[in-house]
Input
Amino acid sequence: MKPIIALNGGSALDRQFHSKATVANKTYSAAVAAAGGVPILVTDPDSIKSYAEIADGLILTGSLFFNPDPERRSEVSKAESGERPVYDAALLDAFVKAGKPVFGICLGLQCINLYFGGTLADGFKFKDGVEHMMCAHNCLAGEDSVVGKIFGSEFMINSRHNRKIDTLAPGLKAVAFSPDGVIEEVQHESLPVWAVEWHPERMRGDHREPPEGPDTTPLFQWFCGVCKEMSGKE
Output
């Protein structure tokens, strides 16, 4: 049986009914499907506990400012910054308490760090003088790094964030960094929780970003494998 992987979504607007909707980039579900998992999108905040019971693992996705109606973009932005952190934290809490694997991506990593008691630095490029939005750089992985074991100690990744980990949360350890010192991967010391600051879902197949980076399908295969093993599915 294939493992069921829950994906959280970002706030969007339904073009037809002019109401709030939940959307996740297709790259996430495609990555899970290619890795042998069954992706499901979490759309009902009132059913979070049920999702944690049904799914074998959770991928906390990155930020998404999707809006088919430019005139209402501010509504989506407000929801993304106001409602989503509460929603994501509740979803993460349900899966952690259920003892199920969690993999965070970009905003997902930041959510995980906050959940366990860490802090974030907003707009760090203005203070540190380094750019991490819409660019690419090397990832330097340590001995305990999951991505390092899969892709090697140094490889190219994309970068799409203006926020980074400031104080690392208790229980988390940083296992990969950018050349300028930004934490790019964390894992929990005792729980099945991992996260990266970059976007591996954008680094698959023939059109990966950046093209110099590895095809990251094996990373999603690893996570689906962990979820399947812990669920006891054959």
User: Anything to note?
Assistant: The first helix runs from residue 26 to 34. The helical segments are 26-34, 48-54, 73-97, 107-115, 124-128, 146-151, 217-231. The chain has seven helices and 13 strands.
